[in-house]
User: Which sequence fits this backbone?
């Protein structure tokens, strides 16, 4: 028996995710040790500090270009950029998650195991502070996402997928209000997510059979000089792609999205809409650009069809929605389609524009869900569209912010929504995918209608009897909103700096 | 002179109303009078500034003047580039003249809606900023930005301060324009990629080599956007709704200026960038324009709502502008540009006067009037004059432009020109019948009971209409100051398209014989 030789580990390059995982473990310990009253401030401080520290670590290692732990993790431009994006967006989402002044005790249930509707449940709904486990869970999820976008082999990617998915399943179930919806959402997400994971794993097995390895460089070489059946390759690629398309909420693997977005506590929805999207597309980009670029002509039309389907399904179904969270869910599906259009350019600007889009969209969507947490009545958030009538009269500032975000989603210039759409469409035309751009434009037209309807509701309709009030946001939600709105404006007016950054980062290592 | 040439006229002119909008927006709701005054003074400052620019513009000098260019998004080659040729210059002047008059005419409009008065005037100034920007921009990306952002203030003006069915009209206006804009976005991206210069600069793209097939598709993208904006038949259905629901002042700007962006865009972007495609599509464009003239004129005859009626007349007029552009003759082109200016003045006046009637009667329906001339003789007289100008009576400015368009078209497409002439007869029908049904004949008893109808034209309203009437008469007899500015720009544009004016037939045959 030979000695087991440990692969070299570049701890510096891995430090962002190590910091997050370490802080998450510490958070779990604190749950056991810290007195109940102090848990919330301690956990929140720890979480925010850990995310900031991880972000600093990303900045420190910004020039790192390496493959480490025996080829399991690649630290390169896209990894670092996307890690930074996940951390920044995660920080803003964490501000929303940690907010406790809008609703007494925060948006989360204190004990998820209490039966819904029981005496205990009524008691805890009114007074008890929310569970503080959400902070370590969120950090595990964010750490998993960092690993997901850095994974350089399919098995690491699968592990990372599970690491960031499982906490999200739990987080979805923890809403303080409308708990049955929340639990249903979590169960749906868990079951469908498990199927997707199983598909992914099966795909990994087939590709292992084809390439004789799971590392992307091995797969790349095997694709270039195939020695085994192409059926294994295409079957494997299709199954792996299904797993990733599920996480990215692309049609026809999108059906979980509206239910989960609606049922999950709104801050968690914001986290999923912003960060999960970055992670899913980060991994998809890496797989397509690094491992399978040898068969790009084979998967491009198939994924192109999926992009078209996603954009149209998202846009058409958004038109019929009457619930704000579901509307934003379908809009996020359509946006996943635009992202895929950018990714399918399969050139350097495709990579950089997709990364740009992920950041721009992430900040806007965080601000949108942030506003959603504020519009409330006695039963919690008032998400039905009709309830928003005349909101512009009652609180013009928040209605104005939300209008601005909606205009950004609709792609009106001087918002990040326009520059990012321009970037991905431009990249796609450059990459010879003009047909995708045409469908993208058509779906943008359809999608403008639901956004506009909300604007009409808020500004042009008379306030009804039951128009909910807009709660005054606490400091953290205010900060989250300010960051989201300013980023949306800044990336629309002066996007040059971020474009430079994405261009510099748009080079994978193999 | 060199100092004047390099003065950043255009960027200041674009930003000035925006600053004004910000100032007015922060005036508290209770100080409505202050907000109105500030807005009016501000728009007058813009007017003075643009008159200075008009003086500084060197007639017969280089085609584009006052060029400024600052980097914006270097990676994409996007720059803040401003420059104007004669065509853009006269339209900028039109904006600068119309906005103060519209502000004055809308003096009491916002109060009737129970909504914030300062916001209304801030929106008007913001709209002025985007309108100036769209004509001053010479970077296609920048042009697109203004083209789209322009929708937002107009949307809120119609939606918040409009009349009946304002929500429907506002959404329809926004969606139609946005659909066109998105087609244009695809075409903008296409031009950018196909030209391969990593630049959106107008000059660069005009000189770039764009293939025939790509050129046709890209032309179509731009053309649809501009045809919706103008609007040309069959993309016109949003205008009567928007024009009918918008407050009269905003409606005057909508048809007077906003819609010109469409025809201006065709002249400035479609023709020079895609000359081959322009020639290829010209028959279709002319056919649509002529159909538009006749169809809209017929519908105008049948309208019972004054604002909708004026909107339909406007569509008919845009048909004339369209045939003038696509005739590809200097006369036709000059006529079209002159038409844009005169139509802005004439239809602007007509809309404002209609607004004065509507404000008194509280209704825009023709059937609610009748014999109004007996109650408000002077206002009725102004209305009659505005109608005559709108039907292009000789002696008023629109006659010159309509005549130029028709002879310019006749030299190359006699048949279309003859058909279009029928539009003039229909114009007489809808204008005269409208005037007759509202101001002439026996007095409608219901009308006499409306106390406001006893108030003839006020001093404020006189100040609003007087400059427009004066300009319409002056340009009717002496259009030279405007044509001198327009002509070189139009000639250059026709040169870009690569067409020669046909000379008198006999000589042309002699010259072209091999």
Assistant:
């Amino acid at each position: 028996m030979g000695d087991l030789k440990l692969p070299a580990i570049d701890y510096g390059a891995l430090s962002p995710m190590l910091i997050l995982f370490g802080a998450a473990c510490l958070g779990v310990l604190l749950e056991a040790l810290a007195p109940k009253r102090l848990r919330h401030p301690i956990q929140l401080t720890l979480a925010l500090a850990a995310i900031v520290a991880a972000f600093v670590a990303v900045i420190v290692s910004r020039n790192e270009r390496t493959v480490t732990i025996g080829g399991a993790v690649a630290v390169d431009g896209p990894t670092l950029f996307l890690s930074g994006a996940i951390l920044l967006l995660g920080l803003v989402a964490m501000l929303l998650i940690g907010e406790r002044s809008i609703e007494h005790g925060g948006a989360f249930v204190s004990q998820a195991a209490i039966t819904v509707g029981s005496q205990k449940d009524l008691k805890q709904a009114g007074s008890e502070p929310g569970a503080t486990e959400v902070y370590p869970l969120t950090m595990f999820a964010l750490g998993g996402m960092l690993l997901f976008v850095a994974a350089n082999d399919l098995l690491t990617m699968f592990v990372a997928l599970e690491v960031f998915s499982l906490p999200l399943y739990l987080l979805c179930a923890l809403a303080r209000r409308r708990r049955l919806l929340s639990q249903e959402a979590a169960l749906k997400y868990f079951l469908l997510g498990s199927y997707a994971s199983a598909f992914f794993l099966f795909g990994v097995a087939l590709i292992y059979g084809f390439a004789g390895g799971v590392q992307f460089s091995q797969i790349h070489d095997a694709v270039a000089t195939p020695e085994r059946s192409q059926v294994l390759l295409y079957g494997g690629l299709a199954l792996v792609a299904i797993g990733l398309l599920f996480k990215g909420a692309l049609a026809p693997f999108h059906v979980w999205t509206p239910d989960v977005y609606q049922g999950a506590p709104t801050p968690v929805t914001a986290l999923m809409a912003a960060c999960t999207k970055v992670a899913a597309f980060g991994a998809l980009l890496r797989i397509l650009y690094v491992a399978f670029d040898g068969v790009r002509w084979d998967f491009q039309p198939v994924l192109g069809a999926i992009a078209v389907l996603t954009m149209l399904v998202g846009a058409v179904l958004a038109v019929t929605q009457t619930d704000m969270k579901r509307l934003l869910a379908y809009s996020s599906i359509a946006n996943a389609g635009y992202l895929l259009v950018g990714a399918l350019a399969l050139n350097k600007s495709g990579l950089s524009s997709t990364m740009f889009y992920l950041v721009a969209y992430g900040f806007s969507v965080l601000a949108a869900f942030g506003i959603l947490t504020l519009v409330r009545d006695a039963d919690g958030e008032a998400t039905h569209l009709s309830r928003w009538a005349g909101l512009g009269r009652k609180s013009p500032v928040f209605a104005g912010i939300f209008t601005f975000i909606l205009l950004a989603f609709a792609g009106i210039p001087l918002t990040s929504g326009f520059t990012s759409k321009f970037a991905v469409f431009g990249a796609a035309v450059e990459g010879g995918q003009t047909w995708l751009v045409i469908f993208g434009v058509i779906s943008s037209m359809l999608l403008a209608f639901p956004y506009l309807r909300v604007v009409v509701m808020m500004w042009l309709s008379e306030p009804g009897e039951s128009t909910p009030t807009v709660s005054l946001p606490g400091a953290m939600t205010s900060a989250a909103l300010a960051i989201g709105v300013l980023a949306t404006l800044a990336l629309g007016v002066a996007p040059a700096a971020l474009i430079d950054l994405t261009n510099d980062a748009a080079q994978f290592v193999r | 002179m060199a100092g004047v040439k390099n003065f950043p006229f255009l960027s200041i002119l674009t930003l000035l109303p925006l600053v004004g909008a910000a100032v007015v927006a922060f005036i508290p709701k209770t100080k409505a009078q202050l907000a109105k005054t500030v807005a009016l003074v501000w728009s007058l400052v813009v007017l003075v500034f643009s008159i200075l620019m008009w003086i500084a513009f060197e007639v017969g000098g280089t085609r584009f003047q006052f060029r400024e260019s600052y980097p914006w998004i270097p990676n994409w080659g996007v720059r803040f580039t401003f420059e104007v040729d004669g065509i853009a210059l006269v339209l900028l002047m039109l904006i600068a003249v119309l906005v103060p008059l519209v502000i004055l005419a809308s003096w009491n409009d916002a109060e009737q809606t129970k909504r914030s008065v300062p916001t209304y005037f801030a929106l008007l100034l913001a709209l002025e900023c985007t309108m100036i920007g769209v004509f001053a921009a010479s970077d296609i990306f920048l042009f697109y930005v203004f083209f789209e952002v322009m929708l937002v203030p107009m949307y809120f003006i119609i939606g918040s301060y409009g009349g009946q069915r304002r929500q429907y009209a506002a959404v329809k206006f926004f969606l139609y324009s946005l659909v066109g804009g998105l087609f244009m976005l695809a075409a903008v991206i296409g031009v950018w990629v196909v030209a391969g210069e990593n630049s959106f600069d107008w000059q660069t793209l005009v000189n770039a080599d764009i293939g025939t097939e790509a050129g046709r598709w890209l032309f179509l993208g731009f053309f649809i956007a501009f045809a919706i904006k103008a609007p040309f038949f069959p993309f016109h259905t949003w205008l009567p709704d928007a024009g009918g629901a918008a407050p009269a002042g905003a409606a005057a700007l909508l048809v007077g200026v906003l819609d010109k962006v469409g025809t201006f865009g065709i002249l400035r972007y479609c023709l020079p960038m895609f000359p081959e495609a322009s020639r290829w599509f010209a028959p279709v464009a002319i056919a649509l324009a002529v159909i538009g003239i006749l169809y809209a004129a017929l519908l105008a005859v049948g309208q019972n709502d004054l604002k909708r009626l004026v909107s339909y007349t406007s569509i008919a007029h845009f048909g004339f502008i369209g045939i003038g552009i696509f005739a590809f003759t200097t006369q036709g082109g000059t006529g079209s540009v002159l038409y844009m200016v005169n139509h802005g003045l004439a239809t602007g006046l007509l809309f404002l006067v209609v607004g004065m009637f509507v404000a008194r009667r509280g209704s825009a329906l023709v059937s609610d009037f009748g014999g109004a001339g007996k109650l408000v003789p002077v206002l009725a007289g102004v209305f009659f004059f505005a109608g005559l100008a709108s039907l292009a009576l000789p002696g008023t400015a629109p006659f010159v432009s309509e005549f130029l368009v028709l002879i310019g078209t006749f030299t190359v497409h006699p048949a279309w020109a003859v058909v279009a002439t029928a539009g003039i007869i229909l114009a007489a029908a809808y204008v005269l019948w409208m005037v007759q049904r509202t101001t002439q004949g026996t007095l409608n008893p219901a009308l006499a009971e409306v106390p406001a109808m006893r108030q003839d034209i006020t001093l404020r309203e006189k100040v609003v209409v007087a400059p427009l009437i004066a300009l319409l008469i002056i340009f009717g007899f002496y259009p030279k100051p405007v044509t001198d500015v327009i002509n070189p720009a139009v000639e250059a544009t026709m040169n870009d398209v690569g067409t020669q004016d046909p000379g008198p037939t006999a000589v042309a045959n002699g010259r072209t014989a091999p």
